[in-house]
Amino acid sequence: MTIWCNGHLAKVEDGGLRLNDRGFLLGDGVFETIALRQQKICHWSAHWKRLEHAMAYFHLTPYFNAAQIEAAIFTLAHELEISDGAIRITVSAGAGGRGLVPLVAAEPSWVVSLAPHAPQPQFISLAQSAVMRSAGNPSTMHKTLSYIDNIVARRQAEADEAFLLNQYGRVACAAAGNIFVLRNGALLTPSLAEGALAGIIRGLLLTAGSIAGFACRETQISLSDMQEAEAIFVTNSLIGAQAVTVLQLTNQPPIKKGSPQVTAILERIEALAF
Hints:
Blueprint: E1 2-5, E2 8-11, H1 22-26, E3 29-37, E4 40-41, H2 44-57, H3 66-80, E5 85-92, E6 109-116, E7 123-132, H4 138-141, H5 148-156, E8 161-165, E9 171-174, E10 178-183, E11 186-189, H6 200-208, E12 210-211, E13 214-218, H7 223-228, E14 231-236, E15 240-248, E16 255-256, H8 262-273
Parallel strand pairs: 7-8, 7-15, 11-13
Antiparallel strand pairs: 1-2, 1-6, 3-4, 3-5, 5-6, 8-9, 10-11, 10-14, 12-13, 14-15, 15-16
């Protein structure tokens, strides 16, 4: 596997990981996943801004700038001959000393990887997870390497994707994306205060104000809203949007979802995303 690591292309071999890296030991770090389409980095400035914000929050030194990382992505794409793919930028706190907060901060490790684009289904099943998404936690507000809650939620779901509730029993997000419900003539999504991540596609929809004639806005979303929604969508930077055809709530029979507007909404979101 070829990656870009700390300024150089490198082959990753077995045993090449530094065992004292805080990202490996403690999940101390952040990441971004970004779509590459037809040799174009989709919404690069928005992704970089979110990464910078996360690095500042966790006191990670921005050793490389946006232009350098952008150049690294294109160098890697050329090396791997990939024009459509999934980019991942990982910034780990590096090989620091022992303890939760070392006396001297280490230089972060930067890795850029690129995998070929894998087409995703437009229609999925969605199940309620027992994993709680605690609104206000650092791991909720940022894309951190501490991703175990999301992993467990997806692993335990007897569906294609899972959605998580916050400590108030309201919808926060999906395991790997934001939730939008079509209800009362609007596309509704939980606010960041509810435990939703500031997703890039989510932000695009809210900035647009409306999609396919439906107003896009933030609100609190209950399980009743999920039950009664005409349609439910999961959005993220790699899939654009997926529509839910079957909703599974805890201790309830599956609920089929569908709406004549689904196709138009999916097409409009894809046009914004890519």
